[in-house]
Specification:
The protein is mainly beta. 11% of the residues lie in helices and 57% in strands. The strands form 2 sheets. A 12-stranded antiparallel barrel has the order 1-4-5-6-7-8-9-10-11-12-13-14. It has a two-stranded antiparallel sheet with strand order 2-3. Keywords: Signal.
C-alpha cells in the first residue's frame, strides 16, 4: 500500500508540475496547451448524482506533447459531501496497432473536506482505455483510498455519430455491485445530453433515472 501511494503520488506531482510550467515552456517545445470550461445541471459521476441536485461548474487545463504524453488539472464546484474538488492527472494516449489506447493516473483533491482534508495522493485511480472504431472499454482501478485494491469501475461504450450507449459496472471484491446504463446525445461540439439509469434494485442506489445537460466551451487565447 505505501509503495503504491508513494509511486503514484510522485508521478502525479512531477507531471502536474510540468502542467503548471507548460505555458512558459510552450513555445518551441512540441507541446500544446488547451483549456475549457463548462456547466452542468448536476454532478453525474458513474451513475450517481454527487451534487444532490445542485448544478456544477467545471474547468480543465491540459498540456499534451506530440509523443502522446499529457498532464492536466480539472476543477469543479464539487459535490454535496466533500465540497470543492480538483483533480490532477497524467498519462499517454495513442495508437497501438489498430487499437486506440490511453493510460493515466488521477488523484482527486478536496481541500474543503473539513478536518479530514483529502490531498494529492490520498485518492488515486489508474485509468486504462482500449478502443477500436466506435467501441471502447475503460477500467478505473482504485490504487489509493478507502477502497484501494477492493474497488474498480468498468465501462463499455459504443458511439455512433452523435449518439452513444454505455454500460457502467461498479465492482467490489466482496460481491455483486450496481451497474447502470447511460444513453447520450451530443447536439453539437458544446452541448450534450445524457440519461443514466441503474439496473439493480437495492438500497445503495437511486432507482430514478438521472438526466444530465452539460455545456462545455473550449477556451482560446
Amino acid at each position: 500500500m505505501h509503495t503504491k501511494k508513494t509511486l503514484a503520488s510522485s508521478i502525479l506531482v512531477m507531471l502536474s508540475a510540468a502542467v503548471l510550467a507548460a505555458p512558459a515552456a510552450h513555445a518551441g517545445s512540441g507541446a500544446e496547451v488547451s483549456a475549457s470550461a463548462g456547466v452542468a445541471n448536476m454532478y453525474l459521476w458513474r451513475g450517481f448524482d454527487l451534487g444532490d441536485g445542485d448544478a456544477a461548474v467545471y474547468g480543465d487545463l491540459k498540456v499534451k506533447h506530440g509523443s502522446g504524453a499529457y498532464a492536466g488539472i480539472w476543477g469543479s464546484s464539487g459535490d454535496a459531501t466533500l465540497g470543492t474538488e480538483y483533480d490532477l492527472y497524467a498519462g499517454w494516449g495513442g495508437k497501438v496497432g489498430a487499437l486506440d489506447v490511453d493510460a493515466s493516473l488521477w488523484t482527486y483533491v478536496y481541500p474543503d473536506a473539513g478536518k479530514g482534508n483529502i490531498g494529492a495522493g490520498d485518492l488515486v485511480d489508474a485509468v486504462v482505455s482500449v478502443g477500436a472504431g466506435p467501441a471502447n472499454v475503460t477500467l478505473y482501478e482504485a490504487l489509493e483510498g478507502d477502497d484501494a485494491n477492493e474497488y474498480r469501475y468498468v465501462t463499455a461504450k459504443y458511439t455512433k455519430d452523435k449518439y452513444s450507449a454505455m454500460y457502467g459496472q461498479h465492482m467490489y471484491d466482496e460481491g455483486a455491485s450496481p451497474g447502470h446504463i447511460q444513453l447520450g446525445y451530443q447536439y453539437n461540439d458544446n452541448l450534450g445530453f445524457a440519461v443514466s439509469q441503474f439496473v439493480v434494485d437495492n438500497d445503495t442506489v437511486d432507482d430514478n433515472p438521472q438526466f444530465l445537460v452539460n455545456y462545455t466551451l473550449p477556451l482560446t487565447k
